[in-house]
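User: Can you help me understand a structure? I only have the sequence.
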Amino acid sequence: MSERLQVGLIGAGHFGRYHALKLAGAKRAKLIGLADPNPERAKTVAWEAGCPVRPVEDILQMAQAVVIAAPAEFHYDLAARALKAGKHVLVEKPIAATLEQATDLAALAKQTGLVLQVGHLERFSAAHGAVSARMGKPLYIEAVRIAPFKPRGTDVSVILDLMIHDLDLILALTDSEVVSVDAVGAPVASAHDDIANARIRFANGAVATITASRISLKTERKMRIFSQTGYLTVDFSARKLTLVGRGTGMKLPGFEEFGVEQAGWQDHDALSAEHEAFFASVLDGAPVAVDAEAGKRALAAALMVSESIAASRAVAEASGLIPKLA
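Assistant: Let's start by predicting it. Here is the structure, written out as tokens:
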């Protein structure tokens, strides 16, 4: 189809600005306006994107689809309003604040027949494609995602801010239900947990260990994946991976069955890829790349991590290991 999708943006904060600029340059969409409760911010981003500032009500009336990049606490209300108004929705992660809200949004999308895509950006990255193409079902995954502190994103915990990216990727790789979570974490620079570590066991026997921090001195994103057929290590920052496995790459001396493959990938614009997938679902009827069920699954895992952290904290406080939070 050659038509351009009329898209409105709700939320023009740090990441909302990126959405606005990408939408402004999209070939298959036209940004008809944006809304943000901060008038100056809205005016600045609208000027950069070359679109008008409009009230949310006008956007929901005029647009065919909306991108919701507001703070997480507003995702449910805005997405529900948009779906009830007959608009297709791309909502940033997490899909909502609670599982009940996520379930309601999934039901609304199904009832209305509208597209509801969740903004798990990593699914559209070149790195995800490189990893998933080289590794089958994993037995064990170890993921580390740490970064220096930034005030942005502290309206939610590091689990919903950063860890949820790896949770979503790991859920996609394992394709199995979570059966148990053992996690620890702590608030350090904000009112929410800023560091967290979780050990997750899946119904098929796979295990994952995930570490996330937003108060580190450096940025590091790495993943190690073990399977029956090999071992894969990934450095997302360096855009490099190493695969040790049967019948692959250069032979290992003394282990003729095994070889080593070293590869990299060329980054592409993941946000534009996410938008293009959304446009294809709306205009062409393509399957929704990250649908409400996927968003709900990632949220459920994140909430299980948060609940386990709260339980671990209660034990540590009772033992005197850490002081009770005020």
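Now, to help you interpret it: Residues 292-319 form the longest helix (28 residues). The chain is about 35% helix and 30% strand. Let me know which part you'd like to focus on.
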